[in-house]
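Notes to self, 3-hydroxy-3-methylglutaryl-CoA synthase:
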Amino acid sequence: MTVGIDQINFYVPRFYVDMAKLAEARQVDPNKYLLGIGQTEMAVSPTSQDIVSMGANAAKDIVTDDDKKQISMVIVATESAIDSAKASAVQIHNLLGIQPFARCIEMKEACYAATPAIQLAKDYLAQRPNEKVLVIASDTARYGLQSGGEPTQGAGAVAMMISHNPRILELNDDAVAFTEDVYDFWRPSGQPYPLVDGALSKDAYIHSFQESWQEYARRHNKSLADFSSLCFHVPFTKMGKKALESILTDDIDEETKSRLTTGYDAATYYNRYVGNIYTGSLYLSLISLLETHDLVPNDTIGLFSYGSGSVGEFFSGKVVEGYQDALDIQAHKDLLNNREEISVETYETFFKRFDNLEFDPETELQNEQNSIFYLESINDHIRNYNTLN
Ligand code: COA
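result:
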C-alpha cells in the first residue's frame, strides 16, 4: 500500500512586476534582487484574488467529478488567513462542489503548514483506501511597500490530491521534524504585515535544515548519495541554495554535488518567476523540478519544509513511473508566460487597493479571466466569490 501525491497543480495571479525595475525604483543595484536574492519576477495579487480564490483556482483543474465523491477531508495551509475562526477550506469545499460529508480545516505554522497537512492526510488515508484528501497551500506574501522584505513577496497557491496508489510521488515513512522557539518572523494578531528579523530568519532556516537533515540521515542511515534531487522551501531562490551549499562539504563526491546543484536550479525555476508564496513555496519547487528536470521512476527526492517560528521537516518521496502523464506542463508554462507585467507604480496601486479591500466591480472583472474564481465583493464581512464564464 502506498500513499502520496496523486495530482499537483498551482495557480498564480495574472500580474507580475519585474524585479530589476523594482530595484531601480527602490534605488538598489538590480543585481541585489536578481543575483543576491535570486528573484527575476514577483507575482502581484489584485484585490479580487485572495487565499480562497487562489486555492480554489489551483484545485479546480485536478478535482474530477469522481474525486468530489471521494474527498473526505480538505486542508488549507496558510499564514495569510482572512478569518480567525472560519476555515478557508470550508469556502473552497463549497466552490469546488465536494460532497458534504467531509472534514474541512485550516492549518498554521508559517510556511511549514502544508507539510504536516500532507503527513496528516497520509496517516488518515492509511485506514481509508477509498478516500482522498485535498491539501491546498495558499498565501499572499506581503511585507509592505519599501520594506526590507518587499523583494521577497509574491502570491499563489498549490493544490495536491493525496491518495492511495499515487501517480506522481509516493511518500516514504521517514519524516523528521525539528522545532525551535525563535522570533525570526511572526505576525501578531491584527498586524497587516509580519515582523521579521531578516538576518536571523536566514540563520534560523539554515540551522533548522541542518538539524533536520542530520537527524534524518542518522535515523535512516542515509547520505546525500541516496537522493536524486532535493527540494527546499523557497522564500527566495538564494535561500535554499545557501542551505544546500552548507551541507555540500569537502567529503561529498563531485558527482553528488553537481547532481544536487543542477537539480536545485531546476527545482527553483518557477519560484524565480513567482516569488515567495509561503506555504506553497516548497511544493511549487517540487512542480518545477518535476516539470523542468529529467527524473526516472523510483528516483528519491528529499524535501525540506521550513516555517519561521520555527518548525523544519525533512522527508522524502519516490517518483512514480509515468508521472509526466499526470502533470499539465503546458498549462503551467502558459499560466506563467501569459501573465501581464505591471509597472512599479501600478503594483503600488494594486498593493494599496488589496490592503484597503477596495472593490470596483468593473476593475475586478477586467483583472480576471474566464473560468477563474475571484473575490467579487465583501458585504458585512462576508466574502462572495464568482467565476467568469
Ligand atoms: N549584487 C549581488 N549581490 C548583492 C548585491 C549586489 N549589488 N547587493 C547585495 N547582494 C547580496 C548580499 O550579499 C546578500 O547575499 P548573501 O546573503 O549571500 O550574503 C543578498 O544580496 C541579500 O542582501 P542582504 O544585505 O541580506 O539584504 P537585505 O538586508 O535587504 O535582506 C532578506 C534580504 C531576504 C533577508 C529580506 O528581504 C527579508 O527579510 N525577507 C523576508 C524574510 C525571509 O524571506 N527570510 C527567509 C527565511 S524564511
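- DSSP finds 14 helices and 17 strands in the chain.
- The mean pLDDT is 97.
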